[in-house]
Amino acid sequence: MPYARFISKWFANVPNINLGIMQSFLTEKGKSVKTFHFHLEFLPFVQKYNPRIIDKFVGQTEQFGVEYMGLDYVFASLLFEDKYLKSKDLFRERLESIGLTLTDFEEMREITMAFTESAFLRLLPYLRNTKLVGFSSSHYQLSSSLLMCSKIKNIYPDVLTIAGGKDCSGAFSHDIMKCTDFLDFIGISECEVTVESLLEHINDNTKDFYNVIYKDRDGEIKRSLSKPNVSINSLPFPEYNFEDLPVRPEEIILPIEFGRGCPWKRCTFCPDESYNILCQAKSAERIKGEFEYYQAISKDLRNFFILDSDALKDPKIIIETSRYLEPKNLNFIYAEFRAERMDKEVLGSIMRFGNWVSNFQIGIETFSDRILEVMNKGVTVLKNVEVLKAAAELGVPVQFNLFTCFPKMTGEDMKENFRVMDSITHILTSKNILVYPGEFYLPTDCPVFLNIENYGLKKHSDNIFSLIFEDFGMQSYSNYPYPYQFDNDDEQFQVSGLIRKKVEEIKSKSPADNYMDYSNSLNALQIEVCRDGRRSTHTLNSKEKDLYISAVEKAQEIQKISEKSGIPLDTASHMLNDLEQKGLILVSSDRKSFLSLAMENKKETQSQKDR
Questions:
Q1: Residue-wise pLDDT tens digits, 442-456
Q2: What is the side-by-side order of every strand in the sheet holding 303-306?
Q3: Start and end residues for every CATH 3.30.750.210 domain found in the chain
Q4: Helix/strand/coil (H, E, C) string of 478-513?
Q5: Boundaries of CATH 1.10.10.10 in the chain?
Q6: Class of 248-358 in CATH
């Protein structure tokens, strides 16, 4: 069903991979399967029905975020219509805060109602002989899925229904099962084993089914047995009926899995652990085979969205895959990578995938080591900077979020953020690096939410979605965040404003006026620094040069460099203190490691080679 954020091509042109895999997986097992990618049809429907509402309503909600007032609210107002009618004043108030009116909302409601009826009529011919209807719900699309589910159950009460995905995982699955009478199962893990076992159970009720929440005959909510999913390398390639999709082949953006599940799953702001997804990586051969599979279908299928919470599970696979992809001239829209296994070789390999239409995401979050520890990110500031520096040198298109607030963050942490940001201004001003300030929020099942007393927070009893409906009956709903207050709320508010201002300040700077380049020769290392147009030159000789070069590609431990180079530790520390004072290196907060900040002057190096 339609996603809350559908105007972006990332969502409007991307078929659902879960449906694609399910179609091929069950077909391979002799089942009759029909899938509907209704989210692809919603934007064309709106454009035909009332094109002006797109800019007026959807563009505005894109700006303010789907959590605040997205399309999911429109579907929810139809699903929970009795509660909506009692809550119009609350809706009006929130709409006005983002420059919309209740009239705008009512117009979108009419379009959404018409679309839902049209989609339901498409389903009707298939429902008479259907045993199980499933909904994939992961992108603020739970309300649209539940609305359609309720309509199906109303006409065919004996058809069993299941919903799965991040919108209904974790603790919230119990709430939604308790408060609805048209869902028979909620998937609480990956879908392949789950749906296969349910179909076997439907045919023979003595057989077990797995990985679901359900109601027994007495109406009591139960959790089924658990079973690991099949190997991702054994799944068939996704199957889409391209002729049925309202997107031309050359405009379709195909989701492709490099793996599933986060290898870390310990960040305190992330609910990933509750999704019960087995961490797996696809082999390079399997990834290559999938690209070849699509190319055999149509040479026009050239746009890809890498769907993986961390595609760097095995850097060797990235490097091997890049060798295959380099001559293909394909387009890549998005990917997510954690920083700890990333280096210059891996970044260079990612660049060789093809044409990066948009910047890929690296989880940076903060330049404070103390806050990284509170976040339990499993990475250091020095490593984050090392990765950003390599990306700047290679021209790799990168974007990252910088949290403007977080539990236990103080003004001192902000100063640490600023100190590092000032040191690496020449990196952050690179045209290929985008920084987005972003607020921390509380989704259900993240570790902060589950241990709130340990993080100096007070949270509202209902999440932001539930707050807008009178007598809603569920504290949580989907992935919507909870309003909260920090114990040091005034300090956090000031920090947030200053960090946002700092990001804007850096964005306004010119790369031509901010750089730090080095040129290496046999006799000396020359570093040219330009900060806001003010230039200076530093010349490093002998041991100082060797020390600097040792950490120019990768952060190094000072103790090990001392032992390897024969430079006494005291002498090395003295040299590094001097280099730090000049702003030429970044030293870790524990003073045990450092990274040289200057980037190779490639133009100068090439001219030297020419001479």
A1: 888 899 988 999 999
A2: 253-256, 303-306, 330-334, 354-356
A3: 248-358
A4: CCCCECEEECCHHHHHHHHHHHHHHHHHHHCCCHHH
A5: 515-610
A6: alpha beta
Write out the CATH class of domain 515-610: mainly alpha
Give residue 384's pLDDT: 97
Q: Collapsing DSSP states into helix, strand and coil, what is residue 222?
A: strand
pLDDT of residue 49: 87
Q: Residue 137: which residues within 8 A CB-CB, separation 6 or more?
A: 1, 145, 163, 164, 165, 166, 167, 168, 478
Sign of the torsion angle spanned by Cα atoms 475, 478, 483, 487: positive
Parts of the chain with a pLDDT under 70: 6-10, 59, 61-62, 66, 602-611
How are beta strands 253-256 and 303-306 bridged, if at all? Answer: parallel
pTM of the model: 0.91
Q: The tokens 């509202």 sit on which residue? A: 460
Neighbours of 231 (CB within 10 A): 11
Break the chain down into helix, strand, coil percent, rounded to 5. Answer: 45, 15, 35
3-state secondary structure 441-476: CECCCCHHHHCHHHCCEEECCCCCCHHHCCCCCCCC
- Rounded CA-CA distance 223/126 in Å is 30
Following DSSP, what letter does each residue of 538-572 receive, concatenated?
EEEEHHHHHHHHHTSSS-EEHHHHHHHHT--HHHH
